[in-house]
Specification:
50 strands, 14-stranded mixed beta sheet, 5 helices, mainly beta, Immunoglobulin-like
Length: 729
């Protein structure tokens, strides 16, 4: 029985053999594993393996943003190549490339050189790693050349033209530079936006071209020919005693105002050259006994001297009859005396004794020697300019007697009372400057009857009433400056009839109603200032027709509706100021077409949506003010880094700055800013975003392990892997 208990059946024998083999195999595996580990450990102690090959994964640049201000300026960008472990690859090969060589070119050593205006990208690569820098070429004015060097205009109303070329610091022309022209004395000569001159009265002025804080000036001379009125000789009668004896006569020519005319041409003649001759210089030479009359003539006026020749020891011949004396000069033209009377009345009415300068006033001197007075060839007053001269009192009605008056400038005094109605009857008057006084009342309706008025400047007074439809009759008006008064009522649609108007300033009044769409007919308008009124309604689409406009100020009114997309047609605009209204809707992308814009101020409205990326095309803009638009939202467009801002105001909006490293670097360079970063900015109806989870570091470790396990250096795109950038960017 015992033997039967331990008897092994055939299948039991197989099982026992299998188990025995398994135990033997396990013992062998453990032994082999131990031997393998020992071998590896020994090998590691004896001969360490070679370090892994460095693969370029990241490139950092010494700068990511370059702004050149002159052609041919250069700067070097240093590139540092890092491997998968963020170690520097000292011998890495890099390749440089410019996206647009016409803007900037780059050498194989990373030296970037400005070539032309615009913006481009400079990229560098090493293996699959790349980096990019933005380069802008924005030429800044360093000098201005004006030609010709001087202009002389020989008559009032005559014209001429200066041209200006603006150069950068490397003496390369700035082809798109904006030039502003001005005259030191517009009462002598005016200059328009294209450098075209118009002579106003005799004298000289400096014409200045300015661009980007640089300016150059050239003179213009208005030399209206002066008409001789009388000739005066140094000798009226003389006797010569010998043949060949000479006498030098001198003639001085005077105009109607009694002023000498230097260099006036004088013709000399002798009534009896057989008695005495006279040459072209007035030298008289005795020939024979007798009497002659020497005449000096200049453009229709003359004077005479009687010359007797009495040679000693000879009998003098019978003298011929002496010609009658010429008639006396005509009396002073009646208009001149009327002008003198008008100026005397003006002097007394405006407290002349207490003016800052009243040189020669009330004297018998010619009127053009009185301070601030200019006259024409006939002695009539053409200009009365007493700006900032401490005048008080009121303008007397006698000023109407100055019927040849072209310019009246009494601005920046303390003149009171009302504007006299006589200005509309003065048919020569072109320029009327009465700004910055204490005038009251309404503009007289007679003023609108003028056929000649070109400038009506009444700013900063206390004038009241409405601007009437008759304003449209001033067909020659180029400058209408009525700001800072107390005008009420609507802007009349007839203002659109002023086709020559270049400057319109109605700001700082109490005007109501809508902006008339007829304002879009003012195709020569360069500046429109309607701010600080009570205007309502929408901004008319027709404003987009004003292609010469460089300043549009509609702020601090009650305007509603959207900003019209047609504003994008104002290609010469450099200032768009619409703050303090009730404008709604989104900021139109067409604003990106205003390539000359320097200031965009839309604050304190009800605008919504985001900032259009087209704003990034405004590479001359330095002020962007959008604060107090609570429905503006979203991240600022990355394209904004192309804009050279010095002031950025976004408070009380939901706009925020992206955390992109390049954007943050650009943002750090803005001197005056009020903006929050997107990561720290709460949404409109949510609590602030919670801080990052503590699991972020473990996520980063897992991703690093995954990168190495899957040959990350050779991925098609491994942007920002192994960098310090936040996960998910």
């Amino acid at each position: 029985m015992r033997n039967n208990a331990y008897r092994t059946l055939p299948q039991d024998a197989d099982l026992i053999a299998t188990v025995s083999a398994f135990h033997s195999l396990r013992h062998s595996f453990h032994l082999s594993l131990a031997v393998l580990i020992f071998g590896l450990f020994s090998a590691c102690l004896k001969s360490p393996s070679a370090p892994p090959v460095q693969e370029p994964t990241t490139i950092t640049l010494s700068t990511y943003r370059i702004v050149f201000t002159a052609i041919n300026e250069s700067i070097r960008i240093d590139a540092t190549v890092l491997d998968q472990d963020s170690r520097v690859i000292t011998d890495a090969t890099v390749h440089w490339r410019s996206a647009d060589n016409s803007v900037a070119r780059v050498s194989d050593r990373g030296v970037v050189t400005a070539a032309g205006s615009g913006t481009t990208q400079i990229s560098v690569s090493s293996g699959y790693a790349t980096a990019t820098a933005t380069v802008s070429v924005e030429q800044e004015a360093s000098s201005i050349e004006i030609s010709p060097s001087a202009i002389t205009i020989s008559q009032v109303g005559g014209t001429g033209r200066f041209t200006a070329v603006v150069y950068d610091a490397n003496n390369r022309p700035i082809l798109v530079a904006a030039v502003v022209w001005s005259s030191s004395n517009p009462e002598i000569a005016t200059v328009d936006a294209n450098g075209r001159l118009t002579a106003v009265s005799r004298g000289s002025a400096l014409i200045t071209a300015s661009s980007g804080g640089v300016s150059t000036s050239r003179p213009v001379f208005v030399e209206v020919p002066r008409v001789p009125s009388r000739v005066v000789l140094n000798v009226t009668e003389a006797t010569l005693a010998t043949v060949g004896q000479s006498l030098q006569l001198d003639a001085q020519v005077y105009d109607s105002a009694g002023a000498a005319i230097p260099g006036a041409a004088v013709a000399w003649t002798s009534s009896r050259p057989e008695i005495a001759t006279v040459d072209a210089s007035g030298l008289v030479i005795a020939v024979a006994n007798g009497t002659t009359r020497i005449t000096a003539s200049s453009r229709g006026v003359s004077a005479q001297a009687i010359i007797h020749v009495v040679i000693e020891d000879t009998e003098p011949p019978e003298p011929p009859p002496v010609p009658p004396e010429p008639p006396p000069p005509p009396p002073e033209p009646p208009g001149t005396s009327a002008d003198r009377e008008a100026l005397i009345a003006f002097y007394h009415a405006t407290d002349g004794p207490n003016w800052m300068d009243n040189t020669k006033w009330l004297s018998e001197n010619p009127l053009n020697e009185w301070y601030g007075v200019s006259t024409d060839a006939d002695g009539r007053v053409t200009k009365l300019s007493l700006r900032e001269n401490q005048l008080t009192g009121s303008i007397p009605p006698e000023i109407e007697q100055l019927q040849n008056l072209i310019l009246l400038n009494l601005s920046r005094n303390r003149i009171t009372g009302t504007i006299p109605p006589v200005f509309g009857k003065m048919n020569a008057l072109r320029y009327l400057h009465l700004g910055d006084n204490q005038l009251t009342g309404e503009i007289p309706p007679e003023t609108y009857q003028s056929n000649t008025l070109m400038i009506l400047s009444l700013f900063d007074n206390q004038l009241s009433g409405e601007i009437p439809p008759a304003i449209g009759k001033l067909a020659n008006l180029i400058d209408l400056h009525l700001s800072t008064n107390q005008f009420t009522g609507h802007i009349p649609p007839e203002i659109g009839q002023l086709s020559n108007l270049a400057y319109l300033a109605l700001n700082g009044n109490q005007l109501t109603g809508v902006i008339p769409h007829e304002i879009g007919q003012l195709l020569n308008l360069g500046s429109l200032s309607l701010e600080g009124n009570r205007l309502t309604g929408v901004i008319p689409h027709e404003i987009g027709q004003l292609e010469k406009l460089n300043g549009l100020l509609l702020n601090d009114n009650l305007l509603t509706g959207e900003i019209p997309s047609e504003i994008g047609q104002l290609v010469n605009l450099n200032g768009l100021v619409l703050h303090g209204n009730r404008l709604t809707g989104e900021i139109p992308s067409e604003i990106g077409q205003l390539v000359g814009l320097k200031s965009l101020i839309l604050s304190d409205n009800q605008l919504s949506g985001g900032l259009p990326p087209e704003i990034g095309q405004l590479n001359k803009m330095d002020r962007l003010i959008l604060n107090d638009n609570r429905d503006l939202s979203g991240p600022l467009p990355i394209e904004l880094v192309n804009v050279p801002l010095v002031q950025l105001r976004l408070q009380n909006t939901q706009l925020c700055a992206p955390l992109n490293a390049g954007f943050q670097m650009w943002l750090a360079g803005i001197e005056d800013k009020s903006v929050e970063n997107c990561a720290t900015m709460p949404g409109p109806d949510t609590d602030p975003e919670p801080p990052p989870s503590s699991d972020t570091s473990s996520d980063r470790d897992a991703l690093i392990a995954f990168y190495h396990a899957t040959d990350g250096p050779n991925w098609t795109d491994n942007t920002n892997w192994l960098s310090d950038e936040p996960i998910g960017t």
